[in-house]
Design a protein that fits this description.
Radius of gyration: 21 Å
Number of helices: 12
InterPro entries: Ald_DH/histidinol_DH, CoA_reduct_LuxC
Shape: globular
Distance between the termini: 18 Å
Number of domains: 2
Number of strands: 14
Pfam family, one: LuxC
Keywords: NADP
Strand content: 15-25%
CATH class of the largest domain: Alpha Beta
Helix content: 25-40%
Largest sheet: 7 strands, mixed
Protein name: Acyl-CoA reductase
Structural class: alpha/beta
Length: 352
């Protein structure tokens, strides 16, 4: 396979995924190999939902829709245009995937294959149904991928480099275990929003998507607010109200009730509106159904703080002048060139 064949294959995968959106699942008879794969993938979505209570059908379809929007020829070309693919020494790259949101390791997967390497995937037990099916689709529409994709549940062996994602605790294990291999090892990160108090209701409604999508379980979910002194939290609560039906979803509601009870018994001061709690806290990682907040006085000092804490932060959502800022409502729609932890995965892979 040459690079163009790989690009074409992922664009065809994007077309296949375009049948599965938050607006509905609609079969397109013009999609290649659809009779063989469409009903099967519908079944995998159902199994994934049944296997993991956090993988609601809506969240699975949101992820698939996001990937279908990303995997179009113009986006893929823009993503790859700055790289040199002329001298790739094909290797086997192991990927250890997290399972916090649907297809969370998919970007690593396509990065390995688009650079011409073979991939050895160790999936999380929480997200093991969707990717193998999509890998089989890739092998059918582009036979050059056959033999280049392998999944394992065993101890990893016979690989040349590794990309591993986990908690801060598992990252320490990864760093020790893979100390003799080229690696990208990702730890816990969270996203923050910096508010000025002048945000429109539309901006705050968009921010609510950054908070609640995937129940707040992703590293791109906003889990912490920085607000000025005397900030009007009523405006924030009005902005996020569109997500209030989330409290009727059992796993989220159970976490809300549990964390609220813990806060009340600990006599913590909290603000809450019946489906979200706000707690003043200097930490970045908040429990489900909770967003931490912290006051700031000087925007320049806040910039310096966030810069010094950059290893804990994935995204900064704001309209302010912050480096690599993200617009309200956009954290869960990253582009192909938006790399986790700001580590260029493709550059890493092309140096192998």
């Amino acid at each position: 396979m040459d690079l163009q064949q790989r690009i074409n294959a992922f664009a065809k995968l994007g077309l296949f995924l375009s049948q599965f959106t938050t607006k509905g699942i609609d079969k397109n008879d013009d999609i290649k190999e659809n009779d063989l794969f469409f009903d099967g993938f519908k079944h995998q979505i159902k199994i994934a939902e049944e296997n993991n209570g956090w993988f609601s059908k809506t969240n699975i379809l949101f992820s698939l829709e996001s990937w279908s929007n990303a995997l179009i020829i113009s986006n893929i070309n823009k993503w790859l245009e700055k790289y040199n693919f002329n001298e790739v020494n094909e290797q086997t790259i192991a990927i250890i995937m997290a399972g916090n949101i649907p297809l969370v390791g998919f970007h690593d997967f396509i990065s390995v294959l688009i650079t011409g390497h073979s991939v050895l995937v160790k999936q999380s037990s929480n997200d093991k149904h969707l990717l193998p099916f999509l890998a089989k689709y890739l092998e059918i529409i582009e036979p050059g991928f056959k033999g280049k994709i392998k999944f394992t549940e065993d101890k990893l062996s016979h690989f040349d480099a590794v990309i591993a994602t986990g908690s801060n605790n598992t990252a320490r294990y990864f760093e020790y275990y893979f100390k003799n291999k080229p690696s990208i090892i990702r730890k816990n990160r969270n996203s923050v929003a910096v508010l000025s108090g002048d945000e429109s209701k539309e901006e705050l409604e968009a921010l609510s998507d950054d908070i609640f999508r995937y129940y707040g379980l992703g590293c791109r979910n906003v889990s912490k607010l920085f607000v000025p002194k005397d900030y009007d939290f009523d405006a924030f609560f009005n902005g996020v109200y569109k997500w209030h039906p989330i409290i009727h979803e059992t796993k989220y509601a159970n976490n809300y009730d549990y964390n609220k009870a813990v806060y009340l018994m600990s006599e913590f001061d909290i603000l809450e509106n019946g489906f979200l709690m706000l707690k003043e806290d200097k930490s970045y990682s908040s429990p489900i159904a909770t967003v931490f907040y912290e006051y700031y006085e000087n925007p320049k000092q806040l910039k310096e703080k966030l810069l010094s804490d950059r290893d804990n932060i994935q995204c900064i959502v704001t309209r302010g002048d912050f480096e690599n800022r993200i617009a309200f409502g956009k954290t869960q729609n990253p582009q192909l060139w938006d790399y986790a932890d700001n580590i260029d995965t493709v550059e890493f892979l092309l140096k192998r």
